[in-house]
Design a protein that fits this description.
Radius of gyration of chain B: 31 Å
Number of strands of chain A: 5
CATH topology of the largest domain in chain A: Rossmann fold
Shape of chain A: elongated
Radius of gyration of chain A: 21 Å
Number of helices of chain A: 11
CATH superfamily of the largest domain in chain A: P-loop containing nucleotide triphosphate hydrolases
CATH architecture of the largest domain in chain A: 3-Layer(aba) Sandwich
Strand content of chain A: 5-15%
Shape of chain B: elongated
Number of domains of chain A: 2
Largest sheet of chain A: 5 strands, parallel
Structural class of chain B: mainly alpha
Order of helices and strands of chain A: HHEHEHEHEHHEHHHH
Oligomer: heterodimer
Distance between the termini of chain A: 30 Å
Number of helices of chain B: 11
Structural class of chain A: alpha/beta
Chain lengths: 227, 228
């Protein structure tokens, strides 16, 4: 029963299955509307930046997603191809040379760059003089609210006929541990269903249903609860 | 999933820890609350104030003795307050009694703390309460003294006398006497106030006490008239 649910909460990006939270839709629309040659998408790790840039790429023709670990040569090769929008995930990993070329290219208005990076690193980069003097659009993606998390979970649970498994109290506990971080929410649910699956297979009657102890066990396993 | 049991144990440990924490927090808060309430009830400062007051009164009485030796009229507050004049010796004895009483209480407390604590506290509270009231009155007068001169006090006393407000007049006579207790005028006015209040005997005593220390024809004449 739980195998399907475990699969649903695996950390995979599936752009076809979009959950429209308020944070997501506003961030996406502001990225699409922005005509600045240099855009920054910032946020804490696990808030859904990669998912959002994938969604942005799907909505933007002539765009490509590259990784921040790309070498300068590889980057030059991509520039030679006919892409208008270049999206760089984990842009904090870019080397200085590549950053410098991006800076120069933005002056020509030939390309549009979207750099997705962690909040801390972005603050450091944006404070550098050559970025300070430029027009840069910064979009910050924040953690989802409790209500959005419940909607998101319900939408997935509904697809698997598992709405009855959670009460509002349990959703609250999940939010307390995950703090609206998408990655943690997925991980939490996946681990929880793994534990439930194990309990069911081994006929541990006490843990056949979701209870407080199971939620705490999940949190301990993920390191979200101090022992 | 081999660590399911391990996780279960950790969860139980965590629960236990949380319960212990909760109990500790409750215990600490209760002890703090109890401590505060008990400290408020005990109020050990009362003792000190009480002892200080008794000491102060002893010092005052000693000062009066010195004044008598120097042949200076006594403070009107003490002389005019006839209840005090009569009970002057009693007050001294009371002070001594209070001191000895306190000492006795202290001695007793070391012996029979558990049985007589309540009684002691009651007695102490009563004594301190009375003394507090006395001190307040004294302090009021002292405050008034700081802001007023002898002439002003005398004028107020006179005006009050003319308006037939004899109690007020007597009060201001006391204040004026504190500023200058050698002037016969104020003693005379005080005696007249007593006369108006049908306290002729007290008026005679007041005038006689003044004449013990100072000579004044005015006072002598008034005294003669009253004695007739």
């Amino acid at each position: 029963m739980y195998q399907q649910l475990i699969k649903s909460f695996q950390d995979k990006i599936n752009v076809d299955n979009v959950f429209n939270s308020l944070n997501f839709s506003t961030a996406l629309s502001s990225l699409i509307d922005s005509k600045s040659p240099l855009k920054f998408l910032i946020g804490k790790p696990g808030v859904g930046k990669t998912f959002l840039i994938n969604l942005y790429q799907k909505n933007t023709p002539g765009s490509i997603i590259i990784d921040g670990l790309i070498s300068n040569e590889e980057f030059n090769e991509i520039l030679n191809q006919q892409y208008e929008v270049i999206i760089i995930d984990e842009a904090q990993l870019l080397n200085i040379k590549t950053i410098e070329t991006i800076r120069i290219l933005t002056d020509n208005n030939k390309y549009q760059f979207l750099l997705s990076m962690h909040l801390k690193d972005a603050k450091e980069i944006l404070e550098k003089d050559h970025f300070k003097s430029r027009e840069i659009d910064v979009v910050e993606l924040k953690e989802i609210t409790k209500e959005d998390m419940i909607k998101y979970l319900n939408s997935i649970l509904f697809l698997n006929n598992a709405n009855h498994l959670f009460s509002n109290r349990e959703f609250k506990t999940i939010y307390k541990y995950t703090k609206g971080n998408f990655r943690y929410i997925k991980k939490f649910l996946k681990t929880l269903f793994e534990l439930l699956d194990f309990a069911q297979k081994n006929k541990l009657n006490k843990y056949e249903q979701i209870n407080k102890c199971l939620l705490t066990m999940t949190a301990i396993k993920l390191g979200l609860e101090n022992e | 999933m081999n660590n399911f049991l391990e996780l279960e144990n950790k969860c139980k440990k965590l629960k236990r820890k949380q319960i212990i924490k909760f109990i500790i927090i409750i215990f600490v808060t209760i002890t703090i609350i109890l401590g505060i309430t008990l400290s408020l009830k005990e109020k050990p400062k009362y003792k000190k104030i009480e002892l200080n007051n008794t000491k102060k009164e002893i010092i005052i009485t000693k000062k009066h003795k010195v004044q008598k030796d120097n042949i200076v009229p006594p403070m009107m507050e003490i002389q005019f307050d006839l209840n005090k004049i009569k009970d002057m010796s009693n007050i001294k004895n009371k002070d001594k009694k209070e001191i000895t009483h306190n000492k006795k209480i202290e001695n007793k407390s070391t012996k029979n703390k558990s049985t007589k604590n309540k009684e002691k506290n009651k007695e102490k509270k009563e004594i301190t309460h009375n003394k507090k009231i006395e001190n307040k009155q004294k302090n009021k007068i002292l405050v008034e003294q700081k802001t007023i001169t002898f002439e002003k006090a005398l004028n107020i006393a006179k005006k009050a006398f003319h308006k037939h407000n004899y109690q007020k007049s007597m009060k201001w006579c006391k204040i004026a006497s504190k500023l200058d207790n050698e002037k016969a005028e104020i003693w005379k006015l005080y005696a007249l106030n007593l006369l108006k209040l049908n306290q002729k005997d007290k008026a005679i005593i007041v005038l006689k006490t003044y004449l013990k220390y100072k000579k004044s024809t005015e006072i002598e004449n008034l005294l003669k008239r009253l004695e007739k």
